[in-house]
Amino acid sequence: MKTTRIAYLGTLLWLTIRYTSASAQPLAPGFDKAEYIELLKISAQFGDSTYVASFPKPQRFTAVYRSPVVGLDNRWDLWTDTGKTAVISLRGTTANSVSWLSNFYAAMVPAKGELQLADNEVFPYHLADNPRAAVHVGWLVSTAFLTNDILPKIDSCYRKSIKDMLIMGHSQGGAIAFLLTAHLYALQRQGKLPANIRFKTYCSAGPKPGNLYFAYAYEAMTQGGWAYNVVNSADWVPEVPFSIQTVNDMNVTNPFAGADQVIKKQSFLKRIVFRKVYNDLSKPALKAQKNYQKYLGKVASNTVKKNLNGYVPPDYYNSNHYVRTGTTIVLLADSAYYRRYPDSQEKLFVHHFHPPYLYLTENNLAALGQATAVQSVSSLDGSWELSYLAATGTDLATLYPNNKPTLTIDESNQRITGSTGCNSFTGPFSTAATGFAFPEAAAMTRMMCSGNGEQAFLSTIKRANRYAISGDTLTLLADDVAVMRFARK
User: Is the pLDDT confidence value at 179 over 80?
Assistant: First the structure.
């Protein structure tokens, strides 16, 4: 009996140590099926008591905070585990009409600007550099109100040495998660959030958050396995908002930009025919876009103002070209799924809630295994361009108006060359394991450089003593703090 008890206690201790060790692992890039399932369980906790009771409970994380209701009926939860990882869980649409107003307020606004939330409250945001990038205004308003409550909790977590943070949103929460992630990355670039906080995002069952130029920016800033968009192929919600593409939504260089001049050069009869065909193809889309902006922007904003005292509607961006955003994980509905969750015109959200997403993840993702996981590249060899510099308070475009700093590493010949954004350098270079040291004996040209870009680059890279590579991203660290990131060229 004593031997059995000792064996039992030993097994229990081993399991406890094993679980604690596993949960203490830092966030890793790549889609993690178990991680997503745990986040689904956390997200489902926003439902009513019956819904919550019917869904599996989270195993790894414990709830530590639930926010008050803010903005357009928005709310978020904070969860933590024993391994210094936090979860920011964003609530989706509720039955409250104000919550639905956030969805229907679907005009676009530029992805960089300010929102006047109240008489004495302005929300500055910078979700993308491209002036043509635009996002859904209703979900941006929700993001603004939630951010005011989230940032103090991030600071509190950081003071407790919690530096790994998962962002999870299902449905409307997924749409907000896109915008919140972009906002938090911007705050890191501006030096307003610590650079060594690592965010990883799962947008689940989320609608489309913005246009193609925002999608490009979001996917570039999160590439390397740090953000996923999980969709059920039977779910209609990821298909909205309705998207209208006009000739004005394309890149400046395109075959339609000069159509008017090409038509003018044709003979009289051809000019009449081509003009009619071109107008018939382009004008309906332009007219529909204006109508969408009128009803989903100007008209909807009147109701928003009634619910948000002091809110001032911004100027809208002339587009409604919404696109799916982020690295997509498709939960493919098959015949077995449809037998379990048949289509229904009475149950419009039969494919949208947490249970069908959990079912497909547990069953239909099994065949994929971890094929979606990012394969880490360990070689430093090659050329790299600076994409992030910690705590400068200035964006890279301002620091380096002409050329961003670069590194070219030749491990076989033990050489490093590159540019500070102004002067070129070369010198001996070697690594030990994941150690990094910029050579003291580096030779450098002596051009006069304007601004503080070169000084910021050199002072930062000389502090770096470690490196990590994930996909095509090289991160230089000073001990445990990420101080620089480079993208493989």
Answer: yes
pLDDT of residue 23: 46
Let me know if 359 is exposed, middle or buried by CB neighbors in 10 A (0-12, 13-18, 19+): middle
Binned at pLDDT 50, 70 and 90, residue 361 comes out as very high
- Please tell me the predicted confidence (pLDDT) of residue 225: 85
**pLDDT higher than threshold 50 for residue 33:** yes
Query: Residue 385's beta-bridge partner residues?
Result: 406, 487
CA-based end-to-end distance of the chain: 65
Q: What are the residues whose beta carbons fall under 8 Å from the beta carbon of 128, sequence distance 6 or more?
A: 111, 112, 182, 213, 214, 216, 217, 218
What's the pLDDT tens digit per position in 104-115? 999 999 999 999
CB 209 within 8 A of CB 185: no
Complete DSSP assignment for 410-474: ETTTTEEEEE-SSSEEEEE---STTB----TT-EE------SSHHHHHHHHHTT--EEEEETTEE
Banded model confidence at residue 434, pLDDT cuts 50, 70, 90: low
> Distance from CA of residue 410 to its chain's centroid?
33
- CB contact set of 260 (below 8 Å; sequence gap of 6+): none
Q: Mean pLDDT, to the nearest integer, of 412-432? A: 89
Beta strands 466-470; 473-478: pairing state: antiparallel
DSSP per-residue codes, 363-429? HTTTTTTTTTSPPP-----EEEEEEEETT-SS-HHHH-SS---EEEEETTTTEEEEE-SSSEEEEE-
What pLDDT sits at residue 223? 82
φ, ψ (nearest 5 deg) of residue 24: -85, -5
Number of residues in the chain:
489
CB atoms < 10 A from the CB of 82, how many?
12
3-state secondary structure of 324: coil
pLDDT for 76-100, tens place per residue? Answer: 999 999 989 999 999 999 999 999 9
Tokens of 454: 């070169």
Token pair of 18, please? 């094993």
Residue 341 carries which side chain, given as an amino acid letter? Y
Per-residue model confidence (pLDDT) at position 480: 62
Between CA 489 and CA 487 the distance in angstroms is 6
Q: Which two tokens stand for residue 453?
A: 């870009």
Task: For residue 53, give Cα distances in angstroms to 41, 49, 57, 290, 445.
Answer: 11, 6, 8, 45, 68
Q: In this structure, is the dihedral angle defined by the CA atoms of residues 29, 34, 37 and 38, taken in order, positive or negative?
A: negative
Tell me how far apart the alpha carbons of residues 376 and 470 are, in angstroms, rounded to a whole number: 5
Q: Is the peptide bond before 241 cis (omega within 30 degrees of 0)?
A: yes
pLDDT per residue over 190-240, tens digit each?
889 988 899 999 999 999 999 999 999 999 888 878 999 999 999 999 999
